[in-house]
Amino acid sequence: MSEPLHLPLRIVIVGHVDHGKSTLIGRMLNDTGALPESKVRELEAAAKGRGVPFEWSFLLDSFQAERDQAITIDTTQIRFKHGVREFVIIDAPGHKEFLKNMISGAAAADAAVLIVDAAEGVREQTKRHAYLLHLLGLKQVVVAINKMDRINFDHGKFEALVQELKEYLHTLGVRPTAFIPIAARDGDNLANASTRMDWYKGKTLLDQLHVFERFGAPVALPLRFPVQDVYRVDEKRILVGRIESGVLRKGDKVLFSPTNETATVTDIVSWPDRHDKAFELKAGEVFGVTLDQPIFVERGHIGSHAEHAPMLTNVFRTSLFWLSKNPLRVGNSYKVRFGTTETAVTVQSIDKVVDTDDLKQTEQAKEVVKNAVAEVTLRAGQLIAVDSYSDNHKTGRFVLVEGADIVGGGLISMEGYADQRRLMQPKSENIYAVDHLTDADARAQKLGHYGGVFWFTGLSGAGKSTLAMLAEKALFERGYHAYVLDGDNVRHGLNKDLGFSPDDRAENIRRVGEVSALMADAGIVCITAFISPYRADRDRARSASPRHFNEIYIKANIETCEKRDPKGLYVKARKGLITEFTGIDSPYEAPENPEMVVDTEVNSVEVCVKQIVDYIEAAVSLKKKRENIIAA
Amino acid sequence: MSEKHYLQQLEAQTIYIIREAYNRIQPLGMMWSIGKDSTALLWMVRKAFFGKVPFKLILLDTEMELPEVYEFRDKYTKEWDLDVHNELCPPESEMDPTLPPATRAAARKTEGLKNLLKRDQYKGIIGGIRRDEQSMRAKERVFSPRSIDGSWDFKDQPAEFWDQYKCEIPQGCHLRIHPILHWTELDIWRYTRMENIPIVPLYLARNGKRYRSLGEKNITFPVDSNASTIDEIIEELQTTKTPERAGRSMDNEREDSFETLRASGYM
């Protein structure tokens, strides 16, 4: 139809504050004829009105606040064309406080310009930014030595600075393609070769940028298609998302992780219906596909081919940068997001902290402070599917979320860890699950609600049994099929062969987990009231019914529970009449990421029951959204 | 790469963002100004959801739109089976009298939007702004939080990288979602041509004038142009140096007019 088009090359410009980033950009836009006619006039008038000399940087700093403070304060993106090539300049701020903006810009870049003041040389942020370019995986880097006029365009001084920079950058793993002497304010060696530095025979900055490439999506890597959502459109169940790497073809048998379920892609769906219907999807394309099996798939599950599947693990090593004012510490919990997966993780260890100012490394540090870089091991509550960054740069990176904010990002390294996929196989091989001839939806329609497991956990005396029984009664009266499995009751029958040793406690919880899963499958609202002090045991109960497990933390501290002591157990434990009593001489591991917390210290019994009943009603409602029903 | 492949890559990014917003944020609505950008965006919404539009479309109506705009709205609301909410904006007499006249007129939309957010408690509003339109918009995030009074704190924006967006915000606040931030004016026209998306005819030149950007009739003016087809518009844009919003008087009244509007909640 017309001449070929190219997506713009994204360039990030980094370097120490006042080394001239905004000036470089303003001048380059002017020299390439990218500015609307009115723009420079408008800014000249504005400068005159303010009684200050015109600066090229005004162009970018076109916020009132920025001009007043004379520093760039956020990432901005500016497009321009030079020859046949389109460029997007991502301007990253030079002020120390705004590292997150710099990363927000630099993470999307194909190439970087590191700007260094010829007179000042390497400064604190020069180092920090260079290190981050390395961590963000940017390989196409050019160094612009600016303000050459300040060293009288001296060749010798330039070469000395280049040598020093080269050595320093190599220690960071950054290998610049070129070093270019420039004077940004006057345009020397930006778009046009300088007449004041005859000794320089290399490319101008723009010519150098022309040489760099834009990275496409990795088509040649193994297939990864994280599920973004599941839609129900006109009775069809459609999985949607984006192919992050590889190629997916109609008819492919695909494996979903971490569920380990397989199905065949029956159709590639698009709108409007095309006569030349796609039979394959490549990395970078968004998809809508249908499957031959009604397997359980939801957002966060990752599709692949079985022979090149991601690793399943609950622990992974990372290199990360940290942006929060609250230090990252061992034992802290965060949410980790990669692709469409989101899951809770705990910091297992901080293996190394790197000071980006002097590159000093501290092993086994206690914390990672704001704007630092570190190697950290993270542990997830359940198995997740991951790739090492070195294998797949699209899926091998993640962000960390603290509260509601993205506060860090990093790269995954699975070196030294085993794939846990094989652990998911059942112990006995001659077991074949028999399919029921009716399904959860049919049962739910008949009963008026879905089944579910509502797993209460908390200290003895926190109120689990009391609340469970009251919630059961309230639900029953509203027509729900609800039943409570209570600690003491179960031990009279199903588990009367078990004592209170750690092993027996684990087995006690395992059995309850399995029984509650069966009840939920049968469509019952099953509430369990067990101390269940160990995370690992509760996680196993969750894995028995992954689709309808709800961990509800009945929260009260040990002092309160001891004061209540409804069964007189604390008194006995304190006297040593009972041993291995949770909270006294046996640990209680509070939930890290429960579906719900009920605080019985703060709220009355009535309020707690209402909270629980409201939550359960919403969770088992027929309207419960497992799929987004798309209807106009 | 071919023009088709080029546009498909831009489209894929947009559809990914739309679906991300729909999954993460409820209730969600979308601004449909009936202009070329939000109509192209609407087209991609229909692609994302296989021909349907699973949220409300909102027109901030000052009753000052050009008649062709209202005609277009009515025609496609019916033809595409859309759920369009027409939000009447408060009158100019209620606006801050210290603002310059055209900025004051534009501020009506900000107030209309505030009323809508307050009443319908939207958590997310999808909008069709682009970075290349205006330098304030070049600073935007894809998912951009707004405080309770609708204001935009452009000095402290959330980190946004590797296609991970801020989705959780405090009660009473909302997110603006910008799925076509990375498109240019030229990209939109090329896409409109490739996909055969209908446009309000005012964009095409008649008697040497055409609208390059559509706004209310009292504060938007046509620019000199002979481009009477989309092909000719595309040709024109490849050489012009006139800014897109040159016909929008509120941008140009005072140095910081548009900035003031944006910071207080204007799209």
Might you state the CATH topology name of the largest domain in chain A? Rossmann fold
CATH architecture annotation name of the largest domain in chain A: 3-Layer(aba) Sandwich
In terms of DSSP E residues, the strand content of chain B is: 5-15%
Question: Largest sheet of chain B, order of strands side by side?
Answer: 3-2-1-4-6-5
Number of beta strands of chain A = 29
CATH classification class of the largest domain in chain A: Alpha Beta
Count of beta strands of chain B: 8
Largest sheet of chain A: 6 strands, mixed
- For CATH, the homologous superfamily of chain B is named as HUPs
Helix content, binned percent of chain B? 25-40%
Q: What number is the mean pLDDT of chain B? A: 89
What is the terminal separation of chain A in angstroms? 35 Å
Shape label of chain A: elongated
The strand line-up of the biggest sheet of chain A is 2-3-1-4-5-6
Radius of gyration of chain A using CA atoms only: 30 Å
Give the CA-based shape of chain B. Answer: globular
Largest interface: A-B, 63 and 59 residues
Here the CATH topology of chain B equals Rossmann fold
How would you sum up the major sheet of chain B?
Answer: 6 strands, mixed
Overall pLDDT score of chain A: 86
Question: What is the compact description of this entry?
Answer:
The complex is a heterodimer of chains A (632) and B (267). Chain A has 632 residues and is an alpha/beta fold. Chain A contains 15 helices and 29 strands.
Blueprint of the fold:
The complex is a heterodimer of chains A (632) and B (267).
Chain A: E1 9-15, H1 21-31, H2 37-50, H3 64-69, E2 76-82, E3 85-91, H4 99-106, E4 111-117, H5 124-135, E5 140-146, H6 155-172, E6 178-181, H7 205-211, E7 225-233, E8 236-242, E9 247-249, E10 253-257, E11 261-268, E12 280-282, E13 286-291, E14 302-304, E15 311-322, E16 328-329, E17 333-338, E18 341-354, E19 361-363, E20 367-368, E21 373-386, E22 397-402, E23 405-413, H8 440-447, E24 452-457, H9 464-477, E25 482-486, H10 487-492, H11 502-521, E26 525-529, H12 535-544, E27 549-555, H13 558-564, H14 569-575, E28 596-599, H15 605-620, E29 628-629
Parallel strand pairs in A: 1-3, 1-4, 4-5, 5-6, 7-29, 24-26, 24-27, 25-26, 27-28
Antiparallel strand pairs in A: 2-3, 7-8, 7-14, 8-13, 9-12, 10-11, 10-14, 11-13, 15-21, 15-23, 16-20, 17-18, 17-22, 18-19, 18-21, 22-23
Helix pairs in contact in A: 9-15, 11-12
Chain B: H1 3-24, E1 28-31, H2 36-48, E2 56-61, H3 67-79, E3 84-88, H4 101-120, E4 124-126, E5 143-146, E6 174-177, H5 185-195, E7 209-210, E8 223-224, H6 230-239, H7 249-252, H8 257-263
Parallel strand pairs in B: 1-2, 1-4, 2-3, 4-6
Antiparallel strand pairs in B: 5-6, 7-8
Helix pairs in contact in B: 1-2, 5-6
